[in-house]
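Subgroup meeting minutes
Present: P.N., E.W., G.H.
Scribe: E.W.

1. P.N. recapped why we're keeping a running log of single-chain structure predictions: easier to compare across weeks, and new members can see raw inputs and outputs side by side.
2. G.H. added today's entry (87 aa).
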Amino acid sequence: MVLRKGDARGGAVLVKVANRRNGQTRLYAKAVRFDGEDVWMEPVSSADETDIDGYIERSARIDPDIWVVEIDDGEGRHFITDKVETR
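Output recorded in log:
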């Protein structure tokens, strides 16, 4: 589900993954590594939904063009096909 619509031509994207079975939530953000490679990373180390929602709110104040997509998956899968950096 799209939680927040950003700029159609260039807004950053956050992907929130909620696993309601175990109560854990993860957040993924697109980033560029030091070597120039595009990757997805977890900008919040907490799996608590309140912490993640707080990060999203702060990000939206800084960048009003940001998109936020939520995936509700019982196994906590993110379905991101690009490289994902793990903690």
